[in-house]
Amino acid sequence: MFKKSLALIMAVFMLSVLAVGCGEGAAPAPPPTTTPASGNTSTPAATGEVLKIGAISSLSGQLQDYGECYQRGFTLGMEYMTGGTNVVAGRPIEIIWEDTTNTPDVAKERTMKLLEQDKVEIVTGYASSGDAVACLPLFEEYKTVCVVEPAAADSIISAENWNEYIFRTGRTSGQDALAMAAIIAKATPGATIACFAPDSTYGYGMVDPFVAAVEAAGCTVVAKEYAPVDASDFSPYFLRIKDKQPDYLYVSWAGANSPWTQLMELDLESAGITVTTGAPDLPQLRGMLPLGATGAIGYCVYYPTLPQTEVNDWLVKRHNEEYGSNPDFFTSGGMAAAMAICTALEKTNGVTDPDVLIAAMEGMEFDSPSGMRTFRPEDHQAMQDLYEIKFTNVDGADHVVPEYIRTIKADEVAPPITNGRG
User: Fold this and answer.
1) Which is nearest to 100 in space by CA: 140, 52, 69, 63?
2) How confident is the model at residue 258 (pLDDT cuts 50, 70, 90)?
3) CB of 39 closer than 8 Å to CB of 32
4) Is the pLDDT of residue 84 over 90?
5) For residues 35 and 56, what is the distance between their CA atoms, to the nearest angstrom?
6) What is the side-by-side strand order in the sheet with 365-366?
7) Contact 70, 333 (CB under 8 A)
8) Would you call 143 exposed, middle or buried from its count of C-beta atoms within 10 A (0-12, 13-18, 19+)?
9) Which residues contact 190 (CB under 8 A, 6 or more apart)?
10) Which H or E run contains 99?
């Protein structure tokens, strides 16, 4: 009987000990995972947990070259930032690519797929400004950060379209406009100018800020011509411009159907009209060889021989190893986007909760092939240097070559803050 009583007492004692162990003396449970409106995993991110990045661009259609260059640059940028491991802040990166086909409705559908089905935690891309503008509201709805590159329209950071989840590593139309306006106004004070651009969001986004900038500098715009993005005959537009006899023709074109061959054949230079532009991608530079004989000046965002940086040296070397050619305009932009995202993730230790990520990225400095850039806190636009260049012909080159004149510092081409936060 005594033995049974002793056993009963010991059993009660052990149950009491276990009860205490499961109470306030126990190790704390891991914090719960929160879930934002999109259903994407938020903070904190566990080390080793795969981080999905949605990358979306024009991988077919009119801007296919831009999208493919961006894809190459982003891939190489991730390689550079991770030392080839594809791991950032302890989190393996999975990149899910989608093609907008350069169609806003398709861009929206495939962005929704990334956010809803793939549960990506960050999105980056958009070659077309029209595609980007169509998708911007989705990032506010799904509370997901988007890094836009290379879509350039100022409207992306306007009060009408911008939201706090949008960051842009690429330059804006306004930055291009301020660079070109400063170059023309310095070369020919009081110049008369004509503009030519595609009839698109991009085209108006390039011309409108340029007109405002040159008129503020004392110049006069005497003509503006817009051609359909799928035009094949550009002669009527250039002949109307020729009749106006401006001092300068500013050309800003984006697309596979380059107008440069027809423009050069019309020989506006013989009519006293200086053709000027921003240096575009390599396919278009190939059609601009006659421009090199005129000594025309312009601006450049990126050309492989211009930046004197370690990052650019690596990009040129690695791109030639992988693809057998130099990187292009939009390759640099893709690498810049990857470097910005990795820099932000390192700052947050891999956490992608939008409040944490936005706080880390506002005012953040990050590197790129063309040097250091900074996200302006007010509208998340990257402040960056551009280049004043002269178009030259170089023996052995199959395209006109941008020759360095000077670096246009970021504060010289800072566009106005138009989203209401300035």
Assistant:
1) 63
2) confident
3) no
4) yes
5) 24
6) 365-366, 373-375, 382-383
7) yes
8) middle
9) 218, 219, 220
10) strand 91-99
Average pLDDT of the segment spanning 83-98? 98
The structure tokens 């306006």 sit at 181
Q: Are 32 and 83 in contact (CB under 8 A)?
A: no
**Residue 46 confidence (pLDDT):** 58
Within 10 angstroms of residue 313's Cβ, the number of other Cβ atoms is 13
Name the burial class of residue 251, with classes exposed (0-12), middle (13-18) and buried (19+) by CB atoms within 10 angstroms of its CB: buried
Cβ–Cβ < 8 Å for 281, 66: yes
Dihedral of alpha carbons 207, 163, 374, 53, sign: negative
Question: Across residues 348-355, what is the average pLDDT?
Answer: 97
Count H helices and E strands in the chain, helices first.
12, 16
Pair 281, 302: CB distance under 8 Å: no
How far apart CA 268 and CA 250 sit, in angstroms, is 12
> What is the distance between the alpha carbons of residues 78 and 84, in angstroms, rounded to a whole number?
8
DSSP per-residue codes, 243-272: HH--SEEEE---SSS-SHHHHHHHTGGGGT
pLDDT level of residue 293 (50, 70, 90 thresholds): confident
Return d(Cα 191, Cα 177) in angstroms, integer. 15
Within 10 angstroms of residue 335's Cβ, the number of other Cβ atoms is: 35
Q: Are 215 and 192 in contact (CB under 8 A)?
A: no
How confident is residue 28, by pLDDT bands cut at 50, 70 and 90? very low
Query: Can you tell me the distance from the alpha carbon of 262 to that of 277, in angstroms, rounded to the nearest whole number?
Result: 15
- When pLDDT is cut at 50, 70 and 90, the band that residue 94 belongs to is very high
pLDDT in tens, 29-50: 333 333 333 334 344 555 789 9
Structure tokens of 414?
A: 């800072």
Q: How many CB atoms lie within 10 A of CB 20?
A: 11
Residue 308, CA atoms < 13 Å, CB-side half-sphere: 4
- What's the pLDDT score for residue 35? 31
CA distance 210 to 9: 90
Cis amide leading into 304 (omega within 30): no
